[in-house]
Automatic annotation (TrEMBL):
Protein name in UniProt: Protein RFT1 homolog
Domain of life: Eukaryota
Functional note: Intramembrane glycolipid transporter that operates in the biosynthetic pathway of dolichol-linked oligosaccharides, the glycan precursors employed in protein asparagine (N)-glycosylation. The sequential addition of sugars to dolichol pyrophosphate produces dolichol-linked oligosaccharides containing fourteen sugars, including two GlcNAcs, nine mannoses and three glucoses. Once assembled, the oligosaccharide is transferred from the lipid to nascent proteins by oligosaccharyltransferases.
Species lineage: Eukaryota, Rhodophyta, Stylonematophyceae, Stylonematales, Stylonemataceae
Species of provenance: Rhodosorus marinus
Compartments reported by the entry: Endoplasmic reticulum membrane
Amino acid sequence: MHFFRHALVLVVGLTSSSGGVSRVFSIGIPNSEVIRLAFDAVVQSVMKFVLGNGEGFILLLSCDETSRGAYKLASNISSLAARFVFDRLEEQSFAAFSRLQNDVPAMEGTFVLATKTSSMIAMLFSFVGPAYSRLFVKIMYGPEWESAGVPFLLSMSLFYLQFISVNGIAEGYFNAVATSKAVRGYSMFTFIVMILYMGFGTVFAVYYGPAAIILANALNMIFRAVYCARFIARLNSKKTGQTRTAFVLLKEATPTLGFFFTMAALSSLTLGSERLMKDELHPMHVGLHLLAGFCSCIVALAAIFRFERNYVEQARKVFRREKPAKED
């Protein structure tokens, strides 16, 4: 629908020079500007359509019905976390970036804080979630979907959330500060990455199944996040006169090794708890396994205060700064 709407605007802009149409559809800006903006909108709409449906094309070309169903089910389950957690973080981050455009240090601090928050939440899904994917699928959807490989694909999809979280914040920063020229450059870059993604996914999905599509999606997110981080670093270097690189910016936004090793230990703990379950559907065994997951969440929270002290201090400063504004 958006594609046809943008195409209509483009046609109106092209025909407005004749005089008659321009008097009816006059919108108060030059025709060349209408054409340029509408063309950009059409291109972006086409790219969003292909990106949104690219997985369907790859699945149709390279996977059987069972694999397609398993992939769709795993993707839909993991997308709930992306929709209700990470989308909200991205929206709030974009609003903050738009409000702080003239304050580069504040924008970078917000980027680091938002990216680290999103990454640590994603790491909880990525490291602890796989231990519960098989139990969840078996209880909610039955053993037939378990045997179809949904738990493995769900575990990979949960790991993929890590890349979605970082890319979402980086793109939010980019969209808040990018000029129309920069947006067109990014659109061209994503178009190239999209072609590589579909080619890689189609070829490797034939041999490795839907898991190859998840891997291709992860690489897609990495390329896009690095592009945005590189643009942000170069733009901020011009504004401040201080040299900044994408590597330094992303490194500051990455959780510490202490937190990473804690999450790796919790992953081993929950996977061990899963293997020790003698009867997956026995209430006591399920309860103990869920208790291990709950304790893992508590330990992860404690690890934030132990290993991410700078992050906690920055979060407190932001909270103190925002609280009076809300009260006013």
